[in-house]
Amino acid sequence: MYYTEIAKIIEAGMRKDPTKVASYSRLLAKKMNDDGEKRGSSRILSVLDKMGSGQAVMDTLTAMPVDQESRLDIAEIDYAPGVDNIILSKSVQDMLDDFKDTIKSKNKMMSMGLDFRTTLLLYGPPGCGKTSAAKYLASELKLPLITARFDTLISSLLGNTAKNIHRIFEYAKKQPCILFLDEFDAIAKARDDSHELGELKRVVNSLLQNIDDFAQEGILIAATNHAGMLDTAVWRRFQTIIELPQPGAEEIRRFIEQFPDVADDSGITDSQWKSIIKALEGLSYSDIKDIVQNMLKKIVLQKKKEIEIIDYLMEIFLFKNHGNYSQEELVKYLSDNGAPQKMIAKALSVSDRTVRNYLGKGVSK
Hints:
This protein is α/β, with parallel strands linked by helices. 55% of the residues lie in helices and 7% in strands.
């Protein structure tokens, strides 16, 4: 029932690695406690406490691996990764939960002779939830998240990058955790890239070897914004591959609904909500978050008691145009996306006639 933890404890004991013995013993005790085996769990914890292993484990966990050239940490660890309610499509959420449940059932599957790798590759545009998905899984599995720092992991010294990759995998092996390699394409580029030197081949070869070794027992998540740049051999190392696309209409509405109610938005009709969501399509969760937060900030500063469609549309337009626009362009955008003319005139402090003229509906002079 607890094959993975017991095997790890035996392996660490044979290698005379007390830190790893203590770390996996505590994980075993926790799982036993969760399963109702409280007496056995207490006995394990009692032995660990008597041996004074707790501080030794913490001292080792905080001793981050460093780049030998810069002496800077090549990883950071989050012991309690928290994430807001993650908003994803049902198909993506189902695949993440399947990966999570597979990890939770690993002991049972191993006892049945099933062989699998707990490796997950996430890919898609920037800001679409890859990092949040990694934090979500770590939080659900109650495991620390070790994240590689590619700004220091990639060294200018020949051969040092491959060594740093090995160091971070070895560090992750020492405790129950999830190893997260964000911006994965930085070290997993295709080895046939004519613009890269031989060092790239050595880095990718080292990466593949470390993944193969780590995936036997560890949990690995990698994420990239540039899936097309990955070496073909890298794809085969991942048991589960999930694309995280830009949010669709349903996800956008659910995402907006989780923001705080700073004013009444009940005056926005269903057809106007459809216009707002359509205007937000094609943007990432990160973009939408910035837009909505900026809009809500202005609502609070202006002490408005009601949120209108124009509040959303104005902020979307400003985000997309970065301040480079004319008033006429703004008026046409607001009108094309469902804002009434009188509302536009009031928001821009111009006359109704000015708005009509911009829209080509007035009498020109």
